[in-house]
Design brief:
This protein is of the alpha/beta class. It has a single domain, classed as 3-Layer(aba) Sandwich (Rossmann fold), CATH 3.40.50.720. 48% of the residues lie in helices and 16% in strands. It has a 7-stranded parallel sheet with strand order 3-2-1-4-5-6-9, with helices on both faces. A two-stranded parallel sheet has the order 7-8. Helix 1 packs across helix 8. The chain is globular. The two termini are 31 Å apart. 42% of the residues are buried.
Amino acid sequence: MKVFITGASSGIGEALAAFYAARGATLGLAARRSDMLAALNARLGQSHACYPLDVTDAAALNDAAADFVARFGAPDVVIANAGVSTGTLTEYEEDLPAFRRVMDTNVYGMAATFAPFIPAMKAAGGARRLVGIASVAGIRGLPGAEAYSASKAAAITYLESLRLEMRPHGIRVVTIVPGYVETPMTAVNPYRMPFLLLADVAAARFARAIERGVSYTVIPWQMGVVAKILRVLPDSIYDRLFRRAPRKPRGLVK
């Protein structure tokens, strides 16, 4: 099995890399932090391809994809996991660069990850997967998280469109919508996180969903129930319940 993962140096990406490596997969590991990427590869046996890059750099992703395909062939699974999160408030002009960074990484970066692999995956045929990691934060807009909620809502809709485009080619597009997962990204949250999952537990559940080729799933299931309720709540009730919800701290998570 051949799997390419972005955001692989920590959190969910690192846990997914460990999960697939333990099952004998050949991995392409992409992340911004080259030192952490090299350390991960060493822990996994030094046998995987590492690509230090930023997913907003489409040219770098093109080069990585070309190298991976040339060395190993078309991947069976491409997981667009790289993402950043921060509290943003539109009223503060100084938050606009963070807003752009979140949108560029979480939305554009996902498309830039998939784009260079699709031709090879189409040509290779078989049961291949494009996997996007979204978030329950994309289901309803959360206070103080305009950029993050907007980016994950956009990702969910983008993946739905892509799913329709890829279906005739036999490539399944899997949208995974996690609740809270214990990672460096959530470590800064100054509030209780219901149904919090350890990263390795989440990775195993994600992998099962990927194997099944489900179109959309919220993990854990308890958060899926919450998500369904949130979708149908009238705005007046939603606003009353969430206007005083705790906020993620402002300032971009590195």
